[in-house]
Amino acid sequence: MSDSLTPAPMELAEALDRMALQKLVWTYCHAIDRHDLALVRSLYHDDAVDDHSPMFIGSPDEYVAWLPAMLANWQLTAHTITAMQFLIAGDLAEGELASAAYHRTADGSREVIAHGRYLDRYRKADGVWKFQHRSLVLDWLEDRPVQRGDGPGIEQGLATGQPGRTDPIYARLPLFAADRLTRA
Question: Is this structure's pTM higher than 0.85?
Answer without folding.
Answer: yes
